[in-house]
Amino acid sequence: SEIIILGVAANVAAGAGAMIAGWFDDxxxxxxxxxxxxxxxILGGLPILFSAEAAVxxxxxxxxxxxxxxxxxxxxxxxxxxxxxxxxxxxxxxxxTTGRAVSFLGPAMFALAIQIFGFQRxxxxxxxxxxxxxxxxxxxxxxxxxxxxxxxREKA
Length: 156
Fold this sequence. Notes:
The chain has about 160 residues and is mostly helical. The protein has a single domain (about 1-150), classed as MFS general substrate transporter like domains (Growth Hormone, Chain: A). It is about 80% helix and about 0% strand. The protein is built from seven helices and no strands. Helix 1 (about 1-30) packs parallel to helix 3 (about 55-80). It starts with a helix and ends with a helix. One of its GO terms (molecular function) is transmembrane transporter activity. Keywords: Membrane, Transmembrane, Transmembrane helix.
């Protein structure tokens, strides 16, 4: 079925994106990878709002999938770089718990946007808003590894 083919293609795109972005993460750091990925996801999602064409959806889905892997992987890399070793368990546990705790936001915003605007594709706007808020929240975070972080101790 077409949805299975899209699922496989999306996973291949996500894997390729994560591998390629890993190279950039190693050289530029995770924050530029996260910001670039979120911007591409937000901009890549906009055409879905305005077009009902299957080809547009497929192209956007593959672009979005290509960027999801890098954003996820670099988010973990970023946390590892700024986390003191003595609180790594707590910080990564909080990271995982927070992800689960707010996992309702995407679907809730998707449903709210559909209810407000009255058409299915508008749900994409709800998800794009959640991503834009995440982008705005990460921009002021300083990527420097504190002297007590795991990264700083590895370099010493």
